Amino acid sequence: MNISTVNPPPQAQALLSGAQKVSTYETTGGLVTAQFASHNLTLIPPLQDGAIIHDNACGSGTVSRLLLSIPNLPSDLRIHATDIDPPFLSALQDDALQNAWPLSATHQKSEALNFADNTFTHSLTNIAIFFTSGAGLDGAREIYRTLQPGGTAVVNCWAHVTWLLPVRAVHEHIRPGKPFPTPVVAWHDGKHIQKVMRDAGFREQDMRIERSDAWVVVKRSGLREWAEKSWAYLGGIANWSEGDEEKWDQAVNKLVELLLVQPGTIVEGDEVRMKASQWVVVATK
C-alpha cells in the first residue's frame, strides 16, 4: 500500500509532523500491530546467549521494546533496528540512549541493508514486508541474506482490516470519479507471503504460517478522534487531492458513520472494538 505524504491538507499535516506522526500512528493502526508483534514473539524459542536481532522496518521500535521487556534476557543481546522514517527512528534512538538499551537505530531500506551476510540470529519484520519492492521479494531476499544459517525470521502481513473498506468508501464519497488504487498483489489469503519467503530461499519444510486476530478498542466518545487520525494516515492512499482541506470534517464524519456498521466492528455499551487480522510466517534458514 503506497500511502502518499505529498501535499497533505493542513489537518493531516498537523497530525503527521515530527514526533506527532509517531503518536498518531501508535494510537491508531499501531494498537493492533503491537498486538501482532506481541503474539509473534511467542512463536519463537527463548533468546539464547549471542542473540543478534534485526528489528526490520522497526517504526518506533514496537518489536524491540517488547523484546527488551522480556525477563532474563541474554546479557550480550544486541538489537539492530532499521527504518526509513526519521521521526520513528528518533523516538527509538532517544529512548535507547536514555535507557541504555543494547540497541542501535539506523536509517536503512529493507531492500538494501548494509549488514554483512549471515549477521543475525533473528530477523523480525512487523507489518512491513508488503511495502518493500518486488512485491515483497526484495525485502524477503535481504532477510534471508542477512540471517545466519539456523536463524529465525518472522514476517507478517494484513489478512483483514476492518477500517480499510470504510477508508475506500470515504475516498469515493469525497472524490467521486477518482479511482482508488487496487493492490498489484493480493496478500490477504496468506499465499503470497509464503511465496516470497520461498522465492527468497527459505524451504517449505522450514516455514510455518498461522492467522491471528487483534482489536482496536476505543471509547465511543473517542471514535471520532481515532477516525480523524486514521484518515490523516490513510487518506493519502489514493493521493491527497485539491479540496481535501475543505472536505476534511465531512470525510472524518463519514468514516465514523461507516466504521460503526462494519462487520468487523462490535459496539458494546460505550466501547467500540474493530478487528484486524494477520498472516504470520516463521521461517528457519
From TrEMBL:
Residues 55-151 form the Methyltransferase domain. It holds the Pfam family Methyltransf_25. This is Methyltransferase domain-containing protein.
